[in-house]
Write a structure and sequence with these properties.
globular; binds zinc ion; 11 helices
Length: about 290
């Protein structure tokens, strides 16, 4: 190619790229980033991100509105993160979990909001439905239905991957049920009262040292009640969550001479790429080791 021909070819290429970018900017609302014309799906908490990524596969671009490692209860949104929520094609969210996300969605609603409250079948004020594998599977099915509506061309893929996710979560549920069968009625003492759905599903009695909101310090009356229950029920282990250095629970355990164990409430991703089902299996091992059963 002569230099002149090369310049012409380069100019033509630049024009094509510019046209392409203009088309992206003005085009269909399904942009998962520059040059990516897939559905842009933004999620608001790690368990929702996990489910949505599993269901989306390669057919949609899934990202989290929160910085990696954010705690589900504490996350605050920077203005750029709020903007990503309102720019998304689909937002998958659980209202009530993060005030910052709720406010951003109310201020500037995106094209489609998937509120998982219904499929999660919430019971009372407890939002931690993802600790129950079967509730999580139901949310996966609902996310697949919504993605199929937003992107009908990829509907079969969304539904097929939701069935795979359901199959994994039903296997997890069967394993929990089998391995915890001997523990029915056991008292599960946790620093953060996040395991109500798990306890209800597998016949355990949850006692939380702190309450549903881990930021609220337990009162002396609550601590006295926990100590009494630990002693009455012959509890061997007090559980706290991975990411917390839970001074109160550790102090109670030291005073009572019980052991401590780790239960991950799966509110944030332990490490990038960690599989939620694997974390749930670690939790099961921790329960089998520490519960009196
Ligand atoms: Zn929580």
């Amino acid at each position: 190619m002569t230099p002149a021909a090369h310049r012409r070819a380069t100019a033509a290429l630049v024009a094509v790229v510019a046209l392409g970018l203009a088309a992206c900017g003005a085009g269909r609302p399904g942009s998962g980033g520059e040059g990516d014309d897939r559905l842009d799906v933004v999620t608001s908490a790690y368990p929702l991100q996990y489910v949505t990524e599993r269901v989306a596969g390669e057919d949609a671009a899934v990202s989290s509105a929160l910085p990696p490692g954010s705690d589900a209860h504490e996350a605050e949104l920077a203005p750029s993160q709020a903007l990503r929520l309102s720019d998304a094609d689909v937002v998958v969210t659980l209202p009530g979990l993060q005030a910052g996300v709720d406010a951003a969605l109310a201020a500037s609603p995106p094209g489609r909001v998937v509120d998982v409250t219904g499929p999660a079948d919430l019971d009372g004020d407890d939002l931690h439905f993802w600790l129950d594998p079967l509730r999580l599977a139901a949310v996966g099915d609902a996310v697949a239905g919504e993605l199929a509506l937003a992107d009908p061309g990829a509907a079969d893929g969304y539904r097929a991957r939701a069935r795979e996710l359901r199959s994994d979560l039903e296997a997890l549920d069967a394993r929990y049920a089998a391995e915890l069968a001997a523990c029915r009625g056991a008292v599960l003492v946790t620093s953060h009262e996040a395991f109500g759905y798990l306890a209800a599903r597998y016949g355990l009695e949850q006692v939380g040292v702190a309450g549903l909101d881990p930021e609220v310090e337990p009162t002396p009356a609550r601590l006295r009640a926990v100590v009494a229950q630990v002693q009455d029920a012959g509890v061997r282990t007090l559980y706290f969550k991975t990411e917390a250095t839970d001074a109160v629970t550790r102090a109670v355990a030291a005073r009572l001479g019980t052991g401590t164990g780790v239960l991950d409430p799966m509110e944030s991703e332990r490490e990038p790429g960690t599989d939620l089902v694997g974390v749930a299996q670690d939790n099961l091992l921790s329960l089998r080791t520490g519960l009196a059963c």
